[in-house]
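Tutorial, part two.
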Amino acid sequence: MADECDAVVVGSGPNGLAAAITLARAGQSVLVLEANATIGGGARSAELTLPDFLHDVCSAVHPLAAASPFFTTLPLERSGLTWIQPEVPLAHPLDDGSAVCLHQDIDRTAEQLAGDSRAYRRLMKPFIPHWENLANEFLQPMLHLPRHPVILAHFGILGLCPTTLLTKFLFKNEPARALFAGIAAHSFLPLEAPVSSAFGLVLGLAGHVVGWPIPRGGSQQITNALAGYLRQFGGKIETEHRVDNLNELPKSRAVILDISVWQFLRIGGHQMPPRYRRRLESFRHAPGIFKIDYALSEPVPWKAEACRRAGTVHLGGTMNEIAAAETDVSQGKIPERPFVLVAQQSLFDETRAPAGQHTLWVYCHVPFNCSVDVSDRIEAQIERFAPGFRDCILARHKMNAAELEKSNSNLTGGDINGGAANLAQLIARPIFSPTPYRTPLEGVYLCSASTPPGGGVHGMCGYHAARAALREVFSVKYTR
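Running the prediction step on this input gives:
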């Protein structure tokens, strides 16, 4: 390990690598330390079931990566990253055998929403020309002086609404309500909660602007491209280097931590002022997930033809059913019919499975730290919309909360979001400050999903944390 460098980054997830790149591009020497044998954090791929079946360990579909204001400044395609756009970004099947779809073309999306076409256009279309400005506004701390206050206020009025209220007010029919509710459920919030609509708006708009793409060769390729670019600036990465105490780190002027608040408490809590430590201790977890990866002998036999052309499929039926499932989860209950998220990468990427065979990536929301095997409930939901699915299964790989945490120590209790994304924790993530990445420890910054803007593969937490370090530690004004 290097004896000394300008900055040490702990954790090689997308945020850690984004922080390292930001520092290295500004001329600082950077060392990244990763506890696992493989870099990437939540953006990794591996053969989890059978030989030659390549599965995404955590993240799979990446609208925010493709739309990230930071990632889009990097020449990642030169380092091997190729985006694949599925024919249908998202399909949401209903019990009558039909499916409602999110298409990249907003008019094509609206036209299928009989009776709600005008309402959908009225909801989404005003924001599309302003996507770049909006993305820069909401992918940073909420406590900032807006550069585009009018469009941000318009977005904020709608985004603050609970999903159940907004959809019932705007839409008359179930297809539009169900489509929006499924997208909003990515928030891990009850759909009756304030700001749940913001997630439906952000991910829906991203789908219209950049699609819901998948990386050829797996999510690991995002990580590999970021790491390759970092090395061009002299950045170094060391794997299998677990950090249990901040005092173990090599000498540096700045330390950037791509770890959750709970990991930060573990390795540095004894050094923190009591008030700051208590704030981190009160930071609330999001629900967990139960994940299954499948090796399949053939594609999923969906009843709805559109699902056979979709990269992502949401299984939850009606808006009321999705809302009931998410409410159960928030109350510590396991839903009988969970909301299930499905990705079908191998339909569009031949590198994922042997010829003629397929992978399937699936998870559902469960209460935090849930150890119950819910695979039967997940498979019942898939069979509901794809009778005969179980006959296609060659192998399964299951991960409950404990196994997710073992694969990535940031995923405590199965929480893949770095903490709940409720209104309070969007405003104060993890503290109420225009620079919440700064900690009371001199030169130490937090850059994980426990900081703004939160979960997702976008690198913006790392980018903002590194900019703060450049300004405050290195007296460098970052202009890119």
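The longest helix spans residues 196-210. In part three we will examine how such features are distributed along the chain.
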